[in-house]
């Protein structure tokens, strides 16, 4: 099995793939859209991309591409704990406080705001496509007096020094990754057991209907369907136009969820099922 992941090697997505699919051939791609294109074009069987971080919320580019650009069903979800470290070229290990710029993914930079504000105040931060891409840039450009925010595997992979460890603002730092495929297939998780089942739907409300969102939630509530998440995203058709992403803590059945969808459609809502899938937790902390 071939698995695309947000690369280069040693990103947090790479760590999740290694834990979840230890026998698969994993192939790094530089951006999330590249990962999704690889599945659509048949270069790989599945793709694993980040969806949400506990500290910084949803990865909007993932959601937007799934909704607006390509229709790829979600066939699984992986949640993994995250640790962020400040990495530097070995020659700057003892003078890391004099770095002139900090590179990382925008979410990683935001996750370490308190540390950056107190320890490296005024040092500019520049976003890159991933934490590992930032680490790779450092070792390839030793003339640049810079630091990267990334994980321990990135330090080992690219020969960098950990100047300060665990610089994220809060201990409970987790990321959800989704597994995508053109067709549904069982996930051959060799080392993990499924935690539960989930169904994700996209709901677009009818325009100018008072209380529409309340009616949507009621359709799930009276059927005792537990919702673990509801999030609004712009439809990109004008200000004030939104759709909702809803996670139902239940596998798609033949009665309850189809009944709720039928009720929503009767109210004038548009409903699309984005996937019904197992979700997994990686207990081992991604270093």
TrEMBL record:
Domain ACT residues, every copy: 201-278
Group of enzyme by EC: lyase
Gene3D superfamilies: 3.30.70.260, Periplasmic binding protein-like II
UniProt-recorded Gene Ontology molecular function terms: prephenate dehydratase activity
Keywords: Amino-acid biosynthesis, Aromatic amino acid biosynthesis, Lyase, Phenylalanine biosynthesis
CDD domains: ACT_CM-PDT, PBP2_Sa-PDT_like
Stored InterPro entries: ACT-like_dom_sf, ACT_dom, Chor_mutase/pphenate_deHydtase, Preph_deHydtase, Preph_deHydtase_CS
Matching PROSITE patterns: ACT, PREPHENATE_DEHYDR_2, PREPHENATE_DEHYDR_3
Domain Prephenate dehydratase span(s) in chain numbering: 2-182
Pfam families: ACT, PDT
UniProt-recorded name of the protein: Prephenate dehydratase
Primary gene name: pheA
């Amino acid at each position: 099995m071939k698995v695309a992941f947000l690369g280069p090697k040693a990103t947090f997505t790479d760590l999740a793939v290694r834990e979840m699919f230890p026998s698969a051939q994993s192939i790094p791609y530089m951006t999330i859209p590249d990962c999704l294109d690889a599945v659509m074009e048949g270069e790989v069987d599945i793709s694993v991309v980040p969806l949400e971080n506990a500290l910084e919320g949803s990865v909007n580019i993932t959601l937007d591409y799934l909704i607006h650009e390509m229709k790829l069903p979600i066939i699984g979800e992986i949640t993994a704990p995250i640790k962020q470290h400040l990495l530097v070229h070995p020659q700057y290990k003892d003078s890391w406080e004099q770095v002139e710029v900090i590179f990382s993914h925008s979410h990683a930079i935001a996750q370490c705001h308190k540390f950056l504000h107190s320890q490296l105040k005024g040092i500019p931060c520049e976003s890159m496509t991933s934490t590992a891409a930032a680490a790779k840039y450092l070792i390839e450009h030793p003339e640049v007096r810079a630091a990267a925010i990334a994980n321990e595997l990135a330090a080992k992979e690219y020969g960098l020094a950990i100047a300060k460890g665990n610089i994220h603002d809060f201990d409970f730092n987790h990321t959800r990754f989704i597994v995508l495929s053109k067709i549904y297939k069982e996930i051959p998780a060799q080392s993990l057991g499924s935690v539960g089942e989930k169904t994700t739907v996209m709901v677009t409300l009818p325009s100018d209907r008072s209380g529409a969102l309340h009616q949507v939630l009621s359709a799930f509530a009276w059927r005792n369907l537990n919702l673990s998440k509801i999030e609004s995203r712009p439809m990109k058709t004008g200000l004030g136009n939104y759709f909702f992403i809803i996670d139902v803590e239940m596998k798609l059945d033949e009665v309850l969820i189809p009944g709720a969808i039928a009720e929503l459609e009767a109210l004038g809502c548009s409903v699309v099922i984005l996937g019904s899938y197992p979700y997994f937790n990686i207990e081992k902390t991604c270093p």
